Amino acid sequence: MITTVSTDNEDRALDRKIEQFKGDKPVLDGLIRTFVTQVKDWETVFWEVINARLLDNAEGAQLDIWGKLVAEPRENRSDADFKTAIRLRLRVQRSQGKMRDLFDVTDALLDTIPWSYVEYDIAAFVIRVSNIDGTMVRTLSRALSRTRALGTGGFLLFSTWDESRDFLYTSLADPSAGQNGYGSIYDPDAGGVFCSVRLLTQGQ
User: Fold this and answer.
1) How far apart are CA 154 and CA 118, in angstroms?
2) Which residue in 181, 192, 126 sits closest to 158, CA to CA?
3) pTM above 0.85, yes or no
4) How many helices, marked H, and strands, marked E, lie in the chain?
5) How does pLDDT run across 56-78, given as a tens digit for each residue?
6) Which CA distances in Å does 162 have to 126, 132, 134?
7) Closest listed residue to residue 169, CA positions, set 157, 184, 191
8) What is the pLDDT of residues 19-49, one digit of tens each?
9) Burial of 114 (0-12, 13-18, 19+ CB in 10 A)
10) Which is nearest to 110 in space by CA: 156, 165, 59, 149?
11) I need a surface site. Which of 26, 43, 120, 170 has the fewest CB within 10 A?
């Protein structure tokens, strides 16, 4: 819907007459109205073109143009999915490599999926997330690689299953009984499943 087009062009044009032409001037006023009406028609057309190409309103070919502008390929995605990808690309391109940028990009992709962030000295961080599919792993790692600051070390620790099945080691030793050994903190007898790690690099 067009919300910025002017609706009072004629009145504003008549109000701008210089002093000696103010008042009731039927011929001059008619000439002004005729000219301004044509300008108003063109303004309406121009705003229709502009609004149709805003990202919120863009569809089909207009979205393809947006994709080319931000270097985001269509890849047979629907308009809705492609628009989401374009917005993400814009957010990544505005990144200053700060923690807030990493959080915004991760939130935008994972939505309601829980994740965690740990920062290490010097200039390194780990983002951990469970229960995501392979496509999301590739998309998230690529986005984070482009978002992080150059010179920082970033790692994505992920699994494609629920967190309760992750294989994490902890000591099971009872020194007083002369025991030693390690096992899964979730199930010491059966163990668990290993997580995977991706190094976040610019080439992804």
Assistant:
1) 10
2) 126
3) no
4) 6, 6
5) 888 899 999 999 999 999 988 89
6) 19, 9, 14
7) 184
8) 777 777 888 888 888 888 877 778 888 888 8
9) exposed
10) 156
11) 26
